[in-house]
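Cross-posted from the bioinformatics board.
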Amino acid sequence: MPYSDKVLDHYNNPRNVGSFDKSDTTVGTGIVGAPECGDVMKLQLKINADGVIEDAKFKTFGCGSAIASSSLATELVKGKTLEEALQLQNTDIVEELALPPVKIHCSVLAEDAIKAAIADYRQKNGITA
Amino acid sequence: MSVTLPIYLDNNATTRTDPRVVDAIIPFFSNVYGNSASKSHPFGWAAEEAVDKARAQVASLIGADPREIVFTSGATESNNLAIKGIAEMYAEKGDHIITVVTEHKAVLDTCKHLESTGKSVTYLEVDDNGLICLDELKAAITDKTILISVMAANNEIGVLQPIAEIGAICKERGIIFHTDATQIVGKIPFDVEALGIDLASFTAHKMYGPKGIGALYVRRRSPRVRLSAQIDGGGHERGFRSGTLNVTGIVGFGEAAALCQAEMASDAARLQVLRDAMEARLLQEIPECQVNGSREHRLPGLLNISFGFVEGESLLMGLCDVALSSGSACTSASLEPSYVLKALGVGDELAHSSLRFGLGRFTQPEEVEWVTEKVIAEVARLREMSPLWELHLEGVDLSTVQWQPH
């Protein structure tokens, strides 16, 4: 199975693997996917008082492309405001990682994880978008 | 520890042709290149003599008479010839066949084809060890049953079915017994007389011979098994299988059979030690992993094992320096995980994360050690990255989690 160099790089050296405390009010957690589908992504964002994502962490159960997509997602959102992070599209990830058509769902999952994490943060803090 | 990468641990898919087999074949390309059916000149006579010798070597390996060996292109063709050939030849006697859900596709799809032509097929289930229940087999027999086809050793999990017992049941009930013996022949003792087998399919490339040459054992007496040929033509192989004989392949098959017969005991003992050591170390070092299939009734060089909380394709990616097979859908053309593992009751997730290690004659102990340590390291690394493992460590039962399938 051919993987792009960028997928291999993220798979071998994943960025920002780990977890934040789920109960922390400055943390938004998004868990998307299902084990029986072969992909579960957990993406966590740490958001400062200015509404800027100052740190991000992930854990992913899934194929190499899913791991790479979530690893890249953590890099992309860091330093962005929530509004900017919501503008990220799965196609940005597809392009950057050169994902083949059968792996596009991995990038969709990463986009969904970002959105879910932001929704969790906003809900926790009573913010309506 | 120095090993050369990549490491080949997929010997149940195919094996390296033994260099001694290659040496035996070479002269038959450029010196002895006659058609073994040419009766009028020395080129043909020499080829025929070589085929006769190889036929005797192959027959000897399974305790058969040379006249009971029909050369084919491989085990898939042998399975087709046996099952379709019996269904057609004995159509007046009955139309019912019994087989097992964990058979190779060459048997299952042949049976499905026969169902589409009006035959009736019973597919026996297996227990969580991968073994059939003899009482269920007996209960499935009807007065229309003409054939029972049960594989000797499974290709994915290496589980050995109770072939001698099935042979006795078939004999008692007057039913023809076919076994797909592809994985067992040449690996551990397999004797058609002792096991009461009427038809056996096997192939050279699983036992260090060349690809493209296989055989069907067809019993000649008590009972004399008859078959409808599936390939018509010049009436080769006593009319069972027409087509010019693959002399180079047959010579290689014969040499491979002779080597297996001489070295089977030592090969099997060595592989069992290597496999058992690998299995013990993986089970000891990796929590939440399970061996698939009976550990008691199993081929010596095969290990099928599943690792919980890691995804199969990512695991294979981490093991890219090792040639092996997986029960994951991602490595095959189909989208379903292994139907064999599912039949054992292995859940989809564990089936996806299963690996089949197939050790063989050329596998070195250092290679097995290297792969074992690599698997331990990769599973640990991927679990460190796995949200499912994290939840598991927190004591969460994953089956109670509300997932969001996409």
